[in-house]
Amino acid sequence: MLKTLKGKVGDFVRGFHGLYQNKFDKYLMLPEGLAEISLGYSNEDREIFAYRFGADAKIKILFMGGIHGNEVGTIKLMYKLINYLHGKRFLGVEIYVLPCLNPDGLAEALESPDYFSGGRYGRFNSNKVDLNRNFKTSSFEPENHWFFGDKNVSVYCGESGFSEPESKLLANFVKDHGISILYSFHSRGKEIMGSRDDLAQKLTLDFVEKTGYKYVPEESWRKMGQTGTIKEWCEENGVSYIEIESATRFGSDWKNQKSAIIGAIKYHYG
Ligand SMILES: [Zn+2]
């Protein structure tokens, strides 16, 4: 009883917090003169964009938000990052920022923000597919699950790996641009994990140290039993992968993550 009440009060406080953040932490404007790249179109014909900073470098890093469209804060975080990177010079790294891989889900989330129940709407694409279960990997299954709070909810992963345009466009983009390191942002959970390779593990621990978020080891990740994830696809395709769960659903979390993101870039300087 006490626990339920505490949970309800918590939801309520978080709801107001989300409402406040969404009202006052609006999307930032993008600066003029960005190197914009179109990946193609979502299922509902919304264009998906990435922005490039620096050129002709060996190390190519991609920062990506909004694979789950309801994780609105991750998209704001990418906008903050774009504004920060604009006009700066980079040594030996080429950086790509993709603010939102799931624009159809985002549109749904903006229409129904659902502040007081944790922002449920807009996680999936418009075919109701969880894009982070739709990658063509050895474990792919058409049905899997995700944890919404402490509930284990069943999710649809699509008919086959890459049945959805958004996941396929991302995989093509990574291959076409020779991306070697991919940071994918989710919310919320204050947790970080990485693919099994040494570089990803090192970068994951650096990010943990700078944010104070919790490190999720491989064994704990395996226990969740997720299939067809981008993490697994990266492991099977030689891309180092780091996944960050931000602190809040609706806020950018830029203050907490700024030094870790800059560290992630500077790590590769000569
Ligand atoms: Zn997510």
Write down the CATH class: Alpha Beta
Gyration radius (Cα, Å) is 18 Å
Ligand species: zinc ion
Q: Please tally the β strands and state the result.
A: 10
Relative strand content? 15-25%
Report the CATH architecture: 3-Layer(aba) Sandwich
Structural category: alpha/beta
Sequence stretches where pLDDT stays below 50 over 5 or more residues: none
- Secondary-structure element string: HEEEHEHEEHEEHEHHEH
- Portion in helices: 25-40%
CATH topology: Aminopeptidase
State the fourth-level CATH superfamily. Answer: Zn peptidases
Give structural notes.
It is a single chain. The termini are far apart. This protein is of the alpha/beta class. The model has no long low-confidence stretch (mean pLDDT 91). The protein contains eight helices and ten strands. It has one domain: 3-Layer(aba) Sandwich (Aminopeptidase). The longest helix has 23 residues, at 2-24. It has helices at residues 2-24, 72-85, 103-111, 165-176, 198-211, 218-223, 230-236, 254-266, and strands at residues 35-41, 47-53, 59-64, 93-98, 143-148, 151-156, 181-187, 191-194, 214-215, 240-246. The strands form two sheets. It has an eight-stranded mixed β-sheet, sandwiched between helices. A two-stranded antiparallel sheet has the order 5-6. The site of zinc ion has 3 residues, from loops.
